[in-house]
Structure formats: C-alpha cells, structure tokens
Amino acid sequence: QVQLVESGGGLVQAGESLRLSCAASKSIFSINAMAWYRQAPGKQRELVAAIAGGGVTHYADSVKGRFTISKDNAKNTVYLQMNSLKPEDTAVYYCKGTIVVGPGVRDYWGQGTQVTVSS
Q1: Which end of the chain is more exposed for a tag (fewer CB within 10 A), N or C?
Q2: Which pLDDT band holds residue 1 (cuts at 50, 70, 90)?
C-alpha cells in the first residue's frame, strides 16, 4: 500500500506560478512511475506530466514549456512546478503512483488539490 498526499494548490492569477507537492508514504524508489493528473469540472481526468523511475519525463502538449515534474528521492516527494498559469489550468490536481506487480500494475491515487487560476 502507498498513501499519497498532495499539497500546494490554491488561487492565483493568470501568469503566476504554483508548486504542487506529492508526498509518498514509502520510498519512491519502489514506485515505478509517478504522475500528475487533473480534472476540471465536467471533463475527464487527464494526464498532465509523468516521471519514471529513471527520471524520464512526459508532458501533455498543453503544459509543455510551462510545467516541470521532478522528484526528491530523499524526501519521497514528487513536485509539479507550474509557471505561466492560465485559467484553463483550473482543475483538481491528483498525484498517482504506479507499481509493477507481477504481470500487471497497481495504481495509487492521492486525494487531490484544487488549483484555481483567475483571469
């Protein structure tokens, strides 16, 4: 079992920055991949950014060049640095950890943190 706790959300104006944190209850060395998703009202949850154990990263086209995912293994924490925020970035942001278990995978989700960007 892995517990994930997000923090850092809030209300900002367009163009400002926020940094989200996702603290894991166990070493992230044991988690194969970490990712940030977001869900806006009335929309499906979508992948924002992901980072694999080796440090390879992936970003949604809508956030490339503005968001950066990173991790601190010593703190068992993954971050999402969000710059140049836009009103369309408004959503609940969720952290997900994926662990390979045998032939399959097991996903763990945090409770989410609200990000609101005003115009």
Answers
A1: N
A2: confident
